[in-house]
Amino acid sequence: MTVEKIATPVADVEALSRNASLLVEEFGRAALAYAKPLEEGKPNTAMAESVGEVVRTLGTVAERWFADPQKAAEAQTLLGGQFLALWGSTLQKMQGESTLPVAMPDPRDRRFAAPEWSSNPMFDFIKQSYLITSRWAEILVDEADGLDEHTRAKAQFYVRQLSGALSPTNFLMTNPELIRDTLREGGANLVRGMKMLAEDVEAGKGELRMRQTDPSRFEVGVNLATTPGEVVFRNDLIELIQYAPRTETVLKRPLLIVPPWINKFYILDLNPEKSFIGWAVSQGLTVFVISWVNPDARHATKDFESYMREGVFAALDAIEEATGERRVTAAGYCVGGTLLAVTLAYMAATNDDRIESTTFLTTQVDFTHAGDLKVFVDEPQIAAIEAGMQNVGYLEGSKMANAFNMLRPNDLIWPYFVNNYLKGKAPLPFDLLYWNSDATRMPAANHSFYLRNCYLENRLSRGEMRLGNVSLDLSKVTMPVFNLATREDHIAPALSVFEGCRAFGGPVEYVMAGSGHIAGVVNPPGKVKYQYWTGGPAHGELGDWVRAATEHPGSWWPYWFSWIEAQNPERVPAREPGGGRLPSLGPAPGTYVRERA
Known about the structure:
- The strands form four sheets. The protein has a ten-stranded mixed sheet with strand order 1-2-5-4-6-7-12-13-14-15, sandwiched between helices.
- It contains 21 helices and 16 strands.
- The protein starts with 12 loop residues before the first helix and ends in a 24-residue tail after the last strand.
- 46% of the residues lie in helices and 12% in strands.
- The radius of gyration is 27 Å and the shape is globular.
- By secondary structure, the protein is of the alpha/beta class.
- The chain has two domains: 13-203, no CATH class; 229-395 and 440-594, 3-Layer(aba) Sandwich (Rossmann fold), CATH 3.40.50.
């Protein structure tokens, strides 16, 4: 019998003993940080509520299976048969025979990249056992009878979370890489990891705020959000930034960008190589960008109408003051695009024609096919969120950031858990992940309106939304629309964006970019990394549109600019920010964006 052993160094018993003592000290520090809110009478009830929701949902799935004993027995037989095959395969492997695996990880799954996961029979058995069990759990959810669509989607989501958390790669004694590292370093990796864990719990004030990058390597305005410009307007909700021109002439019609308030605007201005804002300026656009305030209790009553009036409308007024131009083209990203669509419907109802064409970037207006975030949206969960916001007047940015991370746990949670706290390695500097962690709070009134009217009741696409006592109808929006989706978007799925095109009453050009919600948008022409597809208006089914569409290598940015220029090609001398009727209030990126949650 031949069993391959892990190639590990000889353990330094003295070092292990010494580091075990240090590990206990750091664990005590982490435990104290976690317990501090409890001592202060501020228990975190969100975790208990989340666990309760998981138990209720998966309990419903179990009830469906137990209601049919024959079907439950068949499911058990399926699992037992796979494990019998795995036992047989493992015995053959331990005897030196070559065997085919019973379960293989997805080729894109990087968790089992270490050779021992396949070459060592013990770890191969652990790996395949995990894959068999997790896939069996997914089958139970997929094939449970009598589940409504929302409950099934929630159960699928929770099974993914549990299977991601219970992966053997996340535990010291079942991960050959971690065993090797721990023995080689005498446990020093675990001490470093526990120290980082304690720091991250302290930073989260009793909750784990897992670092995904090295925050000390980035500073907004220094190596992030560096495109030159000036803040030319400020109110309680926004700072409006006008960017300095790079061309002698510019398009007569200015561009107003409405970013999401869930994150900060500089995703569109990460660095000079990846700046959509900087690139747009270099093409001859006068670019204005809204920078939303990071709200606190003072902003609790700021609702969707406030964000329209004090956000988009205030920006339009300021642009006219700064440039003399009454009419603009606008672009909205994600929930900023949803706000822009609501604003356009309001403007159509009130005969306000200041926006002449619009670009939507991964924006949903019809939430029928909304992404995985819908699992967080039903009446009990929204009521719980509203109750939590009522105490402080806002939703903590970390809660939304955690929700986004949970959509891709095997990419955005567990690799960092293993790397940081078990390998004891500080994460590498990555500008995109720094932005991802730079979360913003959300006012209670605004967030509640958004969840209920869009995700829960889908009122905008049905023509049932009202704002400022005005009925909103997107079919009255007849201006040209450029509607960008991304193929792998799990937040605003390509299908959801495609279906939303039908709500507008004018010409809508649907374009689909490669990759996902962020990388598909922030895809500069200088790096031919992803592709995009064009095929004109969104007619018929998405699959038919894709099959008939034309694929183009590289960035969609130049194609978009040609669309913008075609709307109104007239040019005028370049406009300097702060040189008109609106003086500069300070250099870009302003002060609101620097407020950390």
